[in-house]
Amino acid sequence: MEQASDTQGVERAGAGGNELVDELCSFAGRGAGTDAERRAANAFAARLLALGRRADVEPAYVHPQWALVHALHAAVGIAGSIVAVSQPGIGFALVLFAATSAYLDLNTRFYFLRRLFFRRASQNVVSPGGNPGAPMRLVLVAHLDAGRSGFIYGKRSISLARRLSPRMRVLLSPWRVYFWGGPAALLPVIGLRMAGVDAGWVAVVQMIPTVTLIAAIFVLLDIALSDTVPGAIDDASGVAAVLGAAERLRAEPPASLDVWVVLTGAGEPQAEGMRSFVAAHRGTLDPQSTAVVSADSVGYGSPAYAVSEGAVVSTPTDPTLVSICEALASSGIAARPFRSPHTGDAAAARLRGIPAITIAGLDDEGLPSPLRHTDDDVPARCDAQAIGRAADLLVSLARLMDRDAARRAPS
Fold it and tell me: What is the residue-averaged pLDDT of the chain?
């Protein structure tokens, strides 16, 4: 097993990581479904080919306007709340539709309102491993696109998060406040109106989630109108860590593991690239012999592994992968658990039955980089040593998976 204390390994991955981060960030404005994102995918496919790996660029058609999509959900919820004052049944139906559509959308399950928006062409870079007969497949994932900035990502939000416990950060994360404090909270109140309860306090209670949805529209429109950030930490650092780990695993290939690399497009709009990848490869991604490990924003702090993920509800990550990360942490590898209030590439795979886990970079307080989704997320602020530590964890995880797969394989 490779130890995180292997300084040469960390320095080697870190130096290469800096170069990769610089290259990916040179594609300015690489938002989901943009020409810059597609050019970045082509460039990194060429990089994988230069490493001696096969690399396929697979088209994916995505709806990247996630902020406008959820602003529309909020608008439908507000309309339902207003209509419910005179027509509770119609109002309840509108809010129920908004809640259902938002829930399925945030869980990458099914799209209703998102389908009203134009699709854009994106690309996934898929590099299959060189050991297809191995009993286990490991898919290393990071997303190529960069997100937008906005007021919600500013210093005040970071300052508030630092005052909360790790559990409260999940419970009061923006998506949960938006969903559970908005359309989900309106449903029982309008249900009271349908039951004939028309007291003054019902109107007061109904006003609270309605105002929450109004505030959400302003926040979401602010994001939709903001510029795309450089995205060095989120997620050029993840791409660098994945490619660094893949290169080291190719130099000393695991005997019982087939290592794939997947660089997804459209990761920011609720992991649409991963959703497309799983759909395209469903016939070959056997849940019994496949594991997905996503590197997300690892160019900051120390590596951490997600024990649960989800924007609306927390879904436990794969227990086997969690136990492997725990074993690595107990053996001296830099890694600690955390709960993620987001639906990223690993969560999208997990929701489709494929074992998956996210590796992220967190500070001593368990928070991600305050530079994410800001214009300051530039290569110069990305920690090359943090990328090296994340690559070290990915390699160590692969080595331990390889040993487990060899033990379970029939003799």
Answer: 93
| Structure-token pair, residue 293 | 């490990």
The Cα–Cα gap between 165 and 167 comes to 5
- The sign of the dihedral angle between the CA atoms of 94, 100, 102, 105 is negative
SS3 assignment, position 146? coil
Beta 302-309 vs 257-264: how paired, if at all? Answer: unpaired
Map residue 360 onto helix, strand or coil: strand
Q: Which of 216, 255, 244 is nearest to 19 (CA)?
A: 244
The model's pLDDT over 353-401, given as tens digits with 9 standing for 90+, comes to 999 999 999 999 999 999 999 999 999 999 999 999 999 999 999 999 9
Structure tokens at 152: 């919600």
CA angle 162/167/171 to nearest 5° reads 95
State pLDDT tens for residues 263-308.
999 999 999 999 999 999 998 999 999 999 999 999 999 999 999 9
pLDDT band at 120 (very low <50, low <70, confident <90, very high): very high
| Angle (deg, nearest 10), helices 237-251 and 384-408 | 50
Nearest CA to 220 among 75, 95, 34?
A: 75
- Provide DSSP, 276-314: HHHHHTTTT--TTTEEEEEEES-SSSEEEEEEEE-SSS-
Q: Give the Cα separation of 332 and 5 in Å (integer).
A: 8
User: Greatest CA separation found in the chain?
Assistant: 73
Interacting residues of 266 by C-beta distance below 8 A, sequence separation 6+: 32, 33, 37, 60, 62, 64, 122, 143, 145, 272, 273, 276
The two beta strands, 337-339 and 302-309, are parallel
Burial class (CB in 10 A: 0-12, 13-18, 19+), 287: middle
Domains recognised in the chain with CATH numbers: 7-63+121-149+228-408 (3.40.630.10), 67-116+157-224 (no CATH)
The pair phi, psi for residue 386, each rounded to 5°, is -65, -40
| Distance, CA of 232 to CA of 236 (rounded, Å) | 5
- Going by pLDDT thresholds of 50, 70 and 90, the confidence category of residue 333 is confident
The DSSP bridge partners found for residue 141 are 262, 294
CA pseudo-torsion sign 362, 139, 394, 28: negative
pTM of the model: 0.92
